[in-house]
């Protein structure tokens, strides 16, 4: 059922606190360390390819961590995924902060990345399974909000340690700071409820009912019973028909279609150039003529604006169809990077660059950031909400792994490109019209109704639900007959092709 209901303070605070895992994302801790003089001297001025290896190690570890998250969260629960990921990420942060040579630093990045991969693949699943449809975007968007907070904290730590110390604390400090939120999350997770959908999948319906009652405080008993009925009927039907393994999620056509769509979304997000800008922003600013500490200061301001932009999108994301936000953000990012590239091409070879030209180039990175924060939020939000319960954790694990693999490629080639003077990229001009023709509405549907978009089985239990629950059904919510019509359409299209 597509139900219109307000977020309770309990539900909002729950998702925001669980999203603390993203503040401890180890990938951000390196932002302020790469350009510190003591970092460069300690590691004997590493080559661009060595720096690329250090940066890329995080993405490599995160890829394997993301894939492992499905095993953990499906077998032991979403909360155990958060706990295990946090502990592993803390170990990785300690290895980085105490690194005595490049190999140890890379090892720490790998371990930290593994933990972060588990975390970032688990939280979107958790948020999607506790949030009602009309505020699922806002609650799921807390992950991107906390990632932007992590970027700001990392750049602030880099600037603070860089201006306050002249020894190795310049670069070790920012790498150590990232562990603090993760240490808070582990004990707090024992006071946070498991998702009702996971509990139902483990035949713990009474416990799921109690959790749902707490999450939806203020709602009537009939409303909660109706929602439980929807979850139980659909999850039972899926479990009776499928026991998905890794091979099956690629063999079943409707599931494979989901995987291709969400993988394409993740690749598109990475090819916008965001990781190049975030990891190497300080280097880019130095290439534009700013001093090291001016570059760090600009990076700090960039991170602060990113956090502000995320607050804006959290408050507004559920007011727009997902696909319109994707297309709009792509257009904005492409325009910003093309403008920056033109300005760079015009002024790079001149002996004197007007201050306003430099300011305009920097401003384009901020405009780009506004667009990407919407895009980034959707890359974490859309994959778990598109998938049924029986494959949600696995599909989201694949989605996040693809994100990190694409990020790994960008991290490897970016420093080499920067060394040759390529200060920006404009890969965000993906064919948005192609994507629009293949993407489905998700923002008005419950997770159980999402099968309609792919002509999958949907249990028609409407007669079992309390009248009060019927009255709150959104007029835009599709029905089983809609699914049958869509299935016939897909069959006709396949015959024609």
From TrEMBL:
Entry superkingdom: Eukaryota
Signal peptide: none
A Pfam family annotated for this UniProt entry: Sugar_tr
Membrane-crossing residue ranges in chain numbering: 51-72, 84-104, 110-127, 139-161, 173-192, 259-280, 300-318, 325-343, 363-382
Presence of keyword Cell division: no
Keywords recorded for this protein, A-Z: Membrane, Transmembrane, Transmembrane helix, Transport
InterPro entries registered for this protein in UniProt: MFS_dom, MFS_sugar_transport-like, MFS_Sugar_Transporters, MFS_trans_sf, Sugar/inositol_transpt, Sugar_transporter_CS
Membrane topology value: Multi-pass membrane protein
PROSITE patterns, sorted: MFS, SUGAR_TRANSPORT_2
Region (Disordered) location: 469-497
GO CC terms in record: membrane
A GO term, aspect molecular function: carbohydrate:proton symporter activity
Domain Major facilitator superfamily (MFS) profile, first and last residues per copy: 1-460
Principal place of residence: membrane
The keyword Transport belongs to this UniProt entry's keyword annotation: yes
NCBIfam families cross-referenced by the UniProt entry: SP
Family to which this protein belongs: Belongs to the major facilitator superfamily. Sugar transporter (TC 2.A.1.1) family.
Protein name per Swiss-Prot or TrEMBL: Major facilitator superfamily (MFS) profile domain-containing protein
Organism expressing this protein natively: Pseudocercospora musae
Taxonomic lineage: Eukaryota, Fungi, Dikarya, Ascomycota, Pezizomycotina
């Amino acid at each position: 059922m597509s139900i219109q209901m307000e977020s309770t303070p309990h539900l909002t605070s729950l998702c925001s606190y669980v999203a603390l895992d993203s503040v401890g994302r180890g990938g951000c801790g390196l932002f302020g360390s790469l350009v510190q003089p003591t970092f460069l001297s300690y590691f004997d001025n590493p080559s661009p390819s060595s720096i690329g290896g250090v940066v890329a190690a995080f993405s490599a570890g995160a890829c394997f961590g993301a894939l492992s998250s499905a095993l953990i969260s499906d077998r032991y629960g979403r909360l155990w995924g958060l706990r295990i990921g946090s502990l592993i990420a803390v170990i990785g942060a300690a290895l980085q902060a105490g690194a005595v040579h490049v190999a140890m630093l890379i090892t720490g990045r790998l371990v930290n990345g593994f933990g972060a991969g588990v975390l970032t693949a688990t939280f979107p699943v958790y948020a999607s399974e506790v949030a009602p449809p009309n505020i699922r975007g806002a609650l799921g968007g807390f992950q991107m909000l906390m990632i932007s907070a992590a970027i700001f904290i990392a750049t602030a730590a880099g600037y603070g340690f860089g201006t306050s110390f002249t020894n190795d604390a310049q670069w070790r400090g920012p790498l150590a700071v990232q562990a603090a939120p993760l240490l808070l999350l582990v004990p707090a997770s024992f006071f946070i409820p498991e998702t009702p959908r996971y509990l139902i999948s483990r035949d713990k319906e009474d416990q799921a009912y109690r959790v749902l009652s707490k999450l939806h405080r203020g709602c009537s008993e009939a409303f909660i019973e109706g929602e439980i009925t929807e979850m139980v009927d659909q999850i039972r039907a899926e479990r009776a028909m499928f026991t998905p393994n890794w091979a099956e999620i690629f063999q079943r056509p409707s599931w494979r279609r989901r995987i291709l769509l969400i993988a394409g979304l993740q690749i598109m997000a990475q090819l916008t150039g965001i990781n190049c800008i975030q990891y190497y922003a300080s280097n880019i600013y130095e290439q534009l003529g700013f001093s090291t500490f001016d570059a760090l200061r600009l990076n700090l301001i960039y991170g602060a604006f990113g956090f502000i932009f995320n607050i804006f999108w959290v408050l507004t994301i559920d007011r727009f169809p997902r696909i319109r936000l994707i297309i709009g953000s792509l257009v904005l990012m492409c325009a910003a990077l093309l403008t920056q590239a033109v300005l760079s091409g015009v002024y790079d070879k001149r002996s004197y660059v007007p201050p306003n030209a430099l300011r305009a180039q920097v401003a384009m990175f901020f405009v780009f950031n506004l667009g990407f924060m919407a895009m980034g939020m959707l890359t974490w939000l859309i994959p778990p909400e598109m998938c049924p319960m029986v494959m949600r954790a696995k599909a989201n694990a694949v989605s996040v792994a693809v994100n990190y693999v694409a990020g790994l490629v960008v991290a490897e080639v970016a420093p080499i490109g920067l060394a040759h003077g390529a200060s920006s990229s404009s890969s965000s001009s993906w064919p948005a019209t192609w994507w629009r023709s293949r993407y489905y509405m998700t923002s008005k549907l419950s997770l159980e109704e999402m099968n309609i978009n792919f002509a999958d089985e949907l249990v028609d239990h409407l007669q079992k639900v309390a009248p009060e629950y019927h009255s709150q059904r959104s007029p835009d919510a599709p029905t089983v007959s809609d699914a049958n019509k869509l299935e016939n359409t897909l069959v006709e299209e396949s015959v024609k092709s």
